[in-house]
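Consider the subject:
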Amino acid sequence: MDGDVKFQPSLPSELFARIDNEDAVDASESIITTTLDKAINWGRKNSIWPMSFGLACCAIEMMSMIGSRYDISRFGAEVMRGSPRQSDLMIIAGRVSNKMAPVIRRLYEQMPEPKWVISMGACATSTGVFSNYALIPVNQVIPVDVYVPGCPPRPEQLIYAIMLLQKKIEQDKGTIKQVLNLA
């Protein structure tokens, strides 16, 4: 036998050509067109910094969303802030009492613009299974952008709510006017 045996595929050799041997395209000739609104909204939707505000059992599900199993960092929202001045999303997880409502309102007012709110769970949305004079829905205290149903809702539901919020941020109009304080 010949010691110099070569593999000869029956397919054309172009299919086995290496991609890294091809010439790279010069990026200076590329053109990207967009509006400033879309560019700013793209940055905002991919860098949401939530402030955790766990009031009851829904907070456990919110904490598990941050873990490695659900990997919220895919959506740019893995940095949970403890300060309202460093966050732009407030996740209300659990029941809101009359005593806690002024605290929630004050924290919401301390958040910089633009700011968004997710109401997580049946208790935060409609006081849940509790028929109690001391509980109020969170939308009576601050405006809510996305509601997450359930008792308690699964982490996947909260991730879906963040995705819905990202769609809302992406479709926002007049962003450049807001940035320049013209609106």
